Amino acid sequence: MRLDLTINDRPVIWEVRPGEMLLEALRSHDLKGAKLVCGTGDCCACTVVMDGLSINSCSFLALQARGGTITTVEGLAKPDGSLHPLQRAFLEAGAAQCGFCTPGFLMRSYVFLQQTPHPSEDQVRHALAGNICRCTGYVKPVEAVLRAAELMAAESLG
């Protein structure tokens, strides 16, 4: 079946199978940042942004994305290749331990910071609570999101 959508600011037309999950479609088109871990949408490693909302792509039918605008972790970097403030903050804070959960953290944080540009630590912890991570203890990702908020605020000031 034909699927027309925009991914990382590029219009695409893909053929997908009925019942194919969005994560499968993304990964079969070389967008491998989102990870398959639980397959039920419980761990958030598969998170992508669709039309401004974070979604678990492992439990979201590809055909439901028809006409949508999707951003994957590969689409966070700027067109010139420079890192998004979230990516820079995660690197600086050492928040990407094994890296498996990092794309999900980045994408959920991206949406969260658009909705809450000046968050408290408690707000960040609550926003990231669904992301399953065994390496970081959530300390470094929380630090990274708070730092990213500062970087993004500074960038918006020009």
Note down, in words, how this protein is organized.
The chain has about 160 residues and is of the alpha+beta class. The protein folds into two domains: about 1-75, Ubiquitin-like (UB roll), CATH 3.10.20.30; about 85-155, [2Fe-2S]-binding domain (DNA polymerase, domain 1, Orthogonal Bundle). Helices cover about 35% and strands about 15% of the residues. It has five helices and five strands. The protein has helices spanning about 20-30, 85-95, 100-115, 120-130, 140-155, and strands at about 1-5, 10-15, 45-50, 55, 70. It has a five-stranded mixed beta sheet with strand order 2-1-5-3-4, with helices on one face. Helix 4 (about 120-130) crosses helix 5 (about 140-155). The radius of gyration is 15 Å and the shape is globular. The model has no long low-confidence stretch (mean pLDDT about 95).
Total of DSSP H or I helical runs spanning 4+ residues: 5
The tally of structural domains comes to 2
How much helical structure, as a percent, in the residues?
A: 25-40%
Weakly predicted, low-confidence segments: none
Mean pLDDT: 94
- The second-level CATH architecture of the largest domain is Roll
- SSE order in H/E notation? EEHEEEHHHH
CATH topology name of the largest domain, in short, is Ubiquitin-like (UB roll)
